[in-house]
Design a protein that fits this description.
Length: about 100
Protein backbone atom coordinates (compact mmCIF):
# COMPACT_ATOMS: atom_id res chain seq x y z
CA UNK A 1 0.00 0.00 0.00
CA UNK A 2 1.40 3.38 -0.91
CA UNK A 3 2.19 5.64 2.00
CA UNK A 4 1.06 9.17 1.90
CA UNK A 5 3.26 11.96 3.19
CA UNK A 6 1.41 14.53 5.24
CA UNK A 7 1.36 18.08 3.84
CA UNK A 8 3.29 19.24 6.90
CA UNK A 9 6.50 17.73 5.48
CA UNK A 10 5.98 18.59 1.82
CA UNK A 11 4.86 22.11 1.08
CA UNK A 12 4.14 23.23 4.63
CA UNK A 13 7.71 23.09 5.97
CA UNK A 14 9.69 23.11 2.77
CA UNK A 15 9.47 26.87 2.27
CA UNK A 16 10.50 27.91 5.82
CA UNK A 17 13.24 25.27 5.98
CA UNK A 18 14.53 26.30 2.56
CA UNK A 19 14.44 29.96 3.59
CA UNK A 20 16.39 29.22 6.76
CA UNK A 21 19.01 27.18 4.91
CA UNK A 22 19.32 29.75 2.14
CA UNK A 23 19.54 32.62 4.60
CA UNK A 24 22.22 30.85 6.62
CA UNK A 25 24.24 30.03 3.52
CA UNK A 26 23.89 33.62 2.30
CA UNK A 27 24.99 34.96 5.62
CA UNK A 28 28.03 32.71 5.67
CA UNK A 29 29.03 33.49 2.09
CA UNK A 30 28.44 37.22 2.56
CA UNK A 31 30.60 37.26 5.64
CA UNK A 32 33.37 35.35 3.92
CA UNK A 33 33.34 37.51 0.79
CA UNK A 34 33.12 40.75 2.81
CA UNK A 35 35.99 39.75 5.08
CA UNK A 36 38.14 38.78 2.12
CA UNK A 37 37.43 42.04 0.31
CA UNK A 38 38.16 44.05 3.46
CA UNK A 39 41.40 42.20 4.11
CA UNK A 40 42.58 42.71 0.54
CA UNK A 41 41.73 46.39 0.39
CA UNK A 42 43.13 47.02 3.88
CA UNK A 43 46.31 45.19 2.99
CA UNK A 44 46.66 47.15 -0.23
CA UNK A 45 46.15 50.44 1.58
CA UNK A 46 48.65 49.46 4.25
CA UNK A 47 51.22 48.43 1.69
CA UNK A 48 50.72 51.68 -0.22
CA UNK A 49 51.21 53.73 2.93
CA UNK A 50 54.28 51.70 3.87
CA UNK A 51 55.77 52.07 0.39
CA UNK A 52 55.29 55.85 0.47
CA UNK A 53 56.18 56.36 4.13
CA UNK A 54 59.13 58.64 3.28
CA UNK A 55 56.96 60.96 1.20
CA UNK A 56 54.25 60.92 3.86
CA UNK A 57 56.79 61.84 6.56
CA UNK A 58 58.16 64.67 4.41
CA UNK A 59 54.65 66.01 3.78
CA UNK A 60 53.87 65.82 7.49
CA UNK A 61 57.05 67.71 8.36
CA UNK A 62 56.29 70.46 5.82
CA UNK A 63 52.72 70.77 7.04
CA UNK A 64 53.76 71.05 10.69
CA UNK A 65 56.35 73.67 9.72
CA UNK A 66 53.79 75.75 7.82
CA UNK A 67 51.27 75.55 10.63
CA UNK A 68 53.94 76.50 13.16
CA UNK A 69 55.01 79.55 11.17
CA UNK A 70 51.36 80.55 10.74
CA UNK A 71 50.82 80.30 14.48
CA UNK A 72 53.87 82.51 15.04
CA UNK A 73 52.47 85.15 12.66
CA UNK A 74 49.10 85.12 14.42
CA UNK A 75 50.78 85.38 17.84
CA UNK A 76 52.81 88.35 16.62
CA UNK A 77 49.75 90.14 15.27
CA UNK A 78 47.82 89.45 18.47
CA UNK A 79 50.65 90.88 20.56
CA UNK A 80 50.86 93.96 18.32
CA UNK A 81 47.09 94.46 18.59
CA UNK A 82 47.24 94.14 22.37
CA UNK A 83 50.04 96.72 22.55
CA UNK A 84 48.07 99.08 20.28
CA UNK A 85 44.97 98.79 22.46
CA UNK A 86 47.05 99.36 25.62
CA UNK A 87 48.56 102.50 24.09
CA UNK A 88 45.15 103.83 23.06
CA UNK A 89 43.71 103.07 26.51
CA UNK A 90 46.63 104.84 28.19
CA UNK A 91 46.18 107.88 25.95
CA UNK A 92 42.44 107.98 26.66
CA UNK A 93 43.06 107.60 30.39
CA UNK A 94 45.61 110.43 30.28
CA UNK A 95 43.09 112.69 28.52
CA UNK A 96 40.37 111.90 31.09
CA UNK A 97 42.73 112.40 34.03
CA UNK A 98 44.09 115.59 32.46
CA UNK A 99 40.55 117.03 32.04
CA UNK A 100 39.50 116.24 35.59
CA UNK A 101 42.65 117.87 37.00
CA UNK A 102 41.96 121.11 35.14
Amino acid sequence: APTTVPALFTFGLSIPVGAALGGGAGLFMGTAVGATAGALSGGAAGYGAYAKRGEIQELRTKTVSRISSGVDVVKGKAAASADYIKDKASAARARVVGKSAA
